[in-house]
């Protein structure tokens, strides 16, 4: 599927904004996936192409934390493997789901992610005693990884929340290890979707460049002005793009609503 240059330019703009917001508050996929869908990209290809650009951004963040020595490879190598395997399973399931069902499901998942970001609690930076052991960590990594392979937005926040709330990590260390787990899940999902031929290479790479640039701007703005504005912007953008998807005449949810009303 080839997209027109002007559409790719608009998607790059969306990826730039998503990268900036993602660097501050997370959840950039809430902008890029509905933007791809609104551009007419089929659901599986939209998730696959978003996976390409998000993998690049996650890899950059992971290497930044790794250079600072914040990654405990000994403790998190096995959880990263489980995240990888879970994501591979999720991506495989994605390729087997009926496109019509997926078109109806994705707006609902996006709305659920908006609700999560609206009410997610703030996390502290102090290490605490872990409530659970390694087996639980492996299970959580596999489950969240599976979600990432199937859909994706919010994965980083899910990992971070779990590491802080369930496993006693401070926020900075949790974010650092989230990048390792998220990179593993991104790579697995990308490999499976690449093997199925679902990735739009030119669009995905263009969005990746824009996303990385946006991430640099977002990090700079967060350090200078704080992160208070990022989450409301993320929520408003995601809601607007989701409303655009639901307004399409051939959207299964919109068709069902018209059937009930009419």
Automatic annotation (TrEMBL):
Pfam families: TauE (PF01925). Coiled coil: none annotated. It is found in: Cell membrane. The keyword Transcription regulation does not apply. The keyword Cell wall biogenesis/degradation does not apply. GO terms for cellular component: plasma membrane. It is a multi-pass membrane protein. Keywords: Cell membrane, Membrane, Transmembrane, Transmembrane helix, Transport. The chain crosses the membrane at residues 33-52, 73-94, 100-120, 132-150, 156-175, 187-213, 225-246. It comes from the Bacteria. InterPro entries: TM_pro_TauE-like (IPR002781), TSUP (IPR052017). Belongs to the 4-toluene sulfonate uptake permease (TSUP) (TC 2.A.102) family. This is Probable membrane transporter protein.
């Amino acid at each position: 599927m080839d997209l027109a240059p002007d559409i790719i330019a608009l998607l790059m703009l969306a990826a730039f904004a998503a990268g900036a917001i993602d660097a501050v508050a997370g959840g950039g996929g809430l902008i890029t996936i509905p933007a791809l869908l609104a551009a007419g990209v089929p659901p599986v290809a939209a998730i696959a192409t978003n996976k390409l650009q998000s993998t690049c951004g996650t890899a950059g963040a992971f290497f930044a934390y790794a250079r600072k020595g914040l990654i405990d490879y000994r403790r998190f190598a096995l959880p990263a493997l489980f995240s990888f395997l879970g994501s591979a399973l999720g991506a495989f399931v994605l390729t087997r789901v009926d496109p019509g069902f997926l078109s109806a499901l994705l707006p609902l998942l996006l709305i659920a992610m908006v609700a999560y970001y609206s009410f997610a609690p703030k996390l502290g930076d102090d290490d605490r005693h872990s409530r659970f052991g390694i087996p639980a960590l492996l299970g959580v990594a596999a489950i969240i990884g599976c979600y990432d392979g199937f859909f994706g937005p919010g994965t980083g926040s899910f990992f971070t929340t779990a590491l802080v709330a369930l496993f006693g990590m401070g926020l900075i260390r949790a974010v650092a290890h989230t990048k390792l787990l998220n990179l593993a899940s991104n790579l697995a999902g990308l490999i499976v979707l690449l093997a199925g031929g679902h990735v739009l290479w030119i669009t995905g790479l263009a969005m990746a460049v824009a996303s990385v640039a946006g991430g640099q701007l977002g990090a700079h703005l967060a350090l200078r002005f704080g992160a208070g504005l990022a989450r409301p912007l993320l929520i408003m953008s995601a809601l607007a793009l989701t409303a655009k998807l639901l307004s399409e005449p051939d959207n299964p949810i919109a068709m069902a609503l018209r059937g009930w009303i009419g």
